[in-house]
Every structure is written in structure tokens, then in C-alpha cells.
């Protein structure tokens, strides 16, 4: 039976919990990330809290995949999202397919 509360059945129902945790971690990292890295990308692995910075999404994700090859990762652009893009944060599985 499908979970009707899950907006995307291709991802686990606890994704909102993971996104919330990743945003919490980002907020704690904010003083060390901004403003020096504004416009770059950060990938966050929510269980360990480890993060990886790159000039592009692909660069940041490639570094993270060296350590975490098979799990969902959170990626967002560093800085104020309103000033950068309203589509700047998402989770990426191994296939790099965004669902947010």
C-alpha cells in the first residue's frame, strides 16, 4: 500500500526529517560558510554532519561521493537563497536527481 502522505513515492517518507536536519546543520555552519563562500555549494551528510564545499554542484557532490557513495545527501547554494535562487536546496541521491 502506498503512503499517501509522501509527496514523492520514489523517496522514503522520512525525507522531510532529513531535510529539516540538513537545514539545521546548515544554520549551525552558517558563520563559517557565509559570506566567504557565498555562491558556492555545500553538500551535507545529515547523520555525521560532514559537509563538502565546491564551486559548482557537481564539484561539491563529487567530493561528498568519495566519502558517501550510496546515500541521500543535501545540497544547497551558500548564501541567502532569496538572493541566489528559489530552487537552490535539495537532496540528491546517487543519480543526482532532485526531488524538491
SSE topology string: HEEHEHE
- Could you tell me the mean pLDDT? 77
Query: In whole angstroms, how far apart are the ends?
Result: 23 Å
Give the count of structural domains.
1
Show unreliable segments. Answer: 82-88, 93-100
Biggest sheet strand line-up: 2-1-3-4
Compute the number of strand runs.
4
Overall geometric form = globular
Main beta sheet, described? 4 strands, antiparallel
Structural class: alpha+beta
Strand fraction: 15-25%
Calculate Rg over CA atoms. 13 Å
Number of helices: 3
Helix content: 25-40%
Which helices and strands appear, and what pairs or packs with what?
Blueprint: H1 15-33, E1 41-44, E2 51-54, H2 57-67, E3 73-77, H3 81-84, E4 89-92
Antiparallel strand pairs: 1-2, 1-3, 3-4
Verbal overview:
With 100 residues, the chain is an alpha+beta fold. The chain has one domain. The chain has three helices and four strands; from the N terminus they run αββαβαβ. It has a four-stranded antiparallel β-sheet, with helices on both faces. The protein is globular, with a radius of gyration of 13 Å. It starts with 14 loop residues before the first helix and ends in an 8-residue tail after the last strand.
Quick structural overview:
The protein is 34% helix and 17% strand. It has helices at residues 15-33, 57-67, 81-84, and strands at residues 41-44, 51-54, 73-77, 89-92.
